[in-house]
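Office hours follow-up: a student asked to see two folded examples consecutively, so here they are.
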Amino acid sequence: MSKIAVLGAGSWGTAFSIVLADAGNEVTLWARREEVAAGINETRTNAEYHPQVRLPDAISATHDIEKAAYGAEVVVLATPSQALRGNLTQWVPHLPSDAVLVSLMKGVELGTLNRMSEVIAQETGAGPERIAVVSGPNLSPEIARREPAAAVVACADETVATRLQGLIHTPAFRPYTSTDVIGCELGGAYKNVVAIAVGMAVGLGFGDNSTASVITRGLAETARLAIKMGADPMTLMGLAGLGDLVATCSSPLSRNRTFGEKLGRGLSVEEITGGTHQVAEGAKSCHSLRELAASHGVDAPLAQYVDEVVAGRMTVTDTMDAMLGRPTKAERA
């Protein structure tokens, strides 16, 4: 059994811990709140996120970061993306110097415009051969229920990606490998913004033609930026691109799509966020992705308009009118 630490006992961190345990690993799940860790150990469930799912016996929980990370061969990072750097400043002294660091986060840091792998490298000093990302159409409630799913494990070192592939392969979870970390990260971050835009269209009462158009143009927007930054365009056609985009934009389980729907129905950002403890990453990353695209000279209307709505500078109706009123052009321009 490999010893693996998962830092973050939220919805995705808990679901991914189940995958790791099912694959035969010993998993220590770190929880920010001591009562959450205690509840997991006592009841074998995470009552806040997956109350109907019994956690495997190979998962133990703790609030002690030193205990969680001690002896771990792999450390999985599963916090909200905008909180990663702050958490790492506290965690780094306790992380094994040779552990592989795996990011489950899908965002771009505000201010720095760094991808999560870049934040990890800066704060830990780890080289690219020790940093990996997992991305794909992985809605956490379905993963926790062990419904069939696939994902991509990306690392600059293909040998490391293959090793991680073996550590997360279960009868219900099928991982593929990639060396395109940039493409996987941008696909994962951008799809959240596109899902908010799709949700806005749904909230306004529009149907499948509208949502399919937004999804497709969102994929084109993602690909323009990813290619400019050196990604393989085929990555965006795979699980970490199109696969993740379709799942997040289509499912009522998607926090980002639900966030967009509520915006479309007229709720304010404050009203939406006040009623949930879960994070819609796209609401945070839309501004950083807009700035990242601008820094590379890439046209990014979806990121721009979602950012305007989230910031309260435009209404959803005005945004849809503005997108439809944009000058026409060739599809691949």
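And the second, which I mentioned at the end of office hours:
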Amino acid sequence: MSGFVSFVGSGPGDPELLTLKAVDRLKRADAVLFDDLSAGPILSHARRGADLVGVGKRAGRPSPKQDHVSRLLVEYAETGQRIVRLKSGDGGLFGRLEEELVALRAAGVAYEIVPGVPSAIAAAACAGIPLTRRLTARRVQFVTGHDVSGALPEDIDLDALADATATTVVFMGKRTFPRLAAALFARGLPKSTPALLAENVSRPEQSLHRDTVSGLSKRLAEEIGTAPALILYGPLAESGHD
């Protein structure tokens, strides 16, 4: 007997940002496999008696290997249970969703995808800024700040990322941002381009730091901390409120 898996985006961390469908799937699940950033109050919506299994991966910390997570997901589903795979933000944005989908398809397990509020959207909302603005920021680009080894990706499109008229959001990029910034300056990005470091988005310990790309690069070269973060830069990060 094969069960059913719901890939549920939990949003950036604030349980009030969960969708109604996400709450419904949590209440009906026999087991919840959750990311680190989906823990805490969000899990209070899980059904009493459901198995709660932490499988989160965090940079610089001991974490389950992806093949182990995928195998565990299949094993739970093969017991015939309803499973929620709870992913922070939206699972389709740098959430390693595809690897787990491939594993389920190979095992013949049915699934659905429940989208969540992307952390980039939540960060802009918390900062009081839009991601697009008529005439000055018609394009938004999302990019990961590191590859599987933790380094800045070698094939990253630096020319596109140096476009000062685009709003750029860098996921998981605190450690590599100084190197990225230097490469962007070499391609013409003004050092004075506004930047925003958003840490612990939507959580009680949220921190928003406004700077320039140059200033933020220097800050992160000295100290990156352990808080999960996004970096936004472009024509929009200069407005809004803290």
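Two things to take away from it. The chain has two domains: 4-114, 119-233. The first strand starts at residue 4 and ends at 9.
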